[in-house]
Amino acid sequence: MKLCVLDNDVLDPEVAPTYASYGAMFVRLLGDAGADWSFDLFNTTQGHYPASFDDYDAVLLTGSRADAFSQEPWVLELRQRVEQLLYAKKKLVGVCFGHQLIALCLGAQVGRAPQGWGTGRMRYQWHAPELSQAQGRTEIALLASHQDQVFELPPGATLLASSEFCPVAAFAVGSDVFCVQPHPEFVEDYSAYLLDKRRGPLGEEHYTTSRDSLTLGHDGLQMARMIVAFVEAG
Question: Does residue 48 sit within a domain?
């Protein structure tokens, strides 16, 4: 199988030598989850796209520091591309910014969350225990870093995960779309870097609670296995 990764950010110079890119994080994680695929990465912030999406079994949209509802030219270009992919029923996976942008293209409202930043290890109710590789679970814990949210389930979508803080934390649309707000590809050290970077704006109590939560582990690999099963199904 062949996956197109639309990488929607450039990592800070302090961490780029270690993690390379969000796309590279996903290549590592999906490989650990059993994906024996080929991967092509394209940085959308620099206007890079494949000549055609036809050769790909699925397209994955990474996170970004940008807003999905931004009017930046590269974001508007990406939205147009995603609308075309949705129309063509290409399999799409969206994470954080990608989750929000796909939801926006599907007609849902997306914006700055009034409850503020979601950071550190966060727990969610899992509403699809029957999903392939979900293993009957009813909860999932993942690493988050976002101040925007999807405010409503897109038309025709099924809610996969939710919490009081983030009511639309993951959703699917049939066998075509799989989106999740938190970051299965994150590791604790990268989450810690982002928290340290935002310590002032977050406030000391929020920062400390989120930093301490990183010691509890997360289910990123389990979520990746569900993504692999989704891509390989049918």
Answer: yes
Determine contact, residues 30/228, Cβ cutoff 8 Å.
yes
Q: How many domains does the chain have?
A: 1
Range of the domain at 228: 2-112+148-185+219-232
**Closest residue by Cα to residue 76 from 8, 169, 12:** 8
Which is catalytic among the residues 4, 96, 166, 179? 96
Contact 41, 24 (CB under 8 A): yes
218 in active site: no
State the catalytic residue, choosing from 99, 146, 185, 218: 185
Would the pTM of this model clear 0.90, i.e. be above it? Answer: yes
* Low-confidence residues in the chain, pLDDT < 70: none
CATH of the domain at 28: 3.40.50.880
185 is catalytic: yes
Catalytic residue among 99, 146, 183, 218: 183
User: Does residue 134 fall inside a structural domain?
Assistant: no
Q: Encode pLDDT of 21-76 as tens digits.
A: 999 999 999 999 999 999 999 999 999 999 999 999 999 999 999 999 999 999 99
Rounded to an integer, what distance in angstroms lies between the CA atom of residue 185 and that of residue 30? Answer: 9
CB atoms within 10 A of CB 115: 11
